[in-house]
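explain this.
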Amino acid sequence: FKWLDAIFQVKVSGKDCGGRCVIFDTLRPEKVGPPLHLHTDCDEWFFVQDGAFKFQVGSEIMRVTAGDSLLVPQDT
């Protein structure tokens, strides 16, 4: 599916694991991501396969590049 100018491919759905996890492979053709948001019911984990991305987690801003991963805890 397509959302916020990105293409998402579902690798693991909530149906596959009793709603405990969802895994997407995402292709972002433009240098844009979602607006700042809060997940109150789950952690969010990112793994960068290619390129570089700027993330803001709380008040911290960081650059994540190919091979890096980032865990954003629930309620952050």
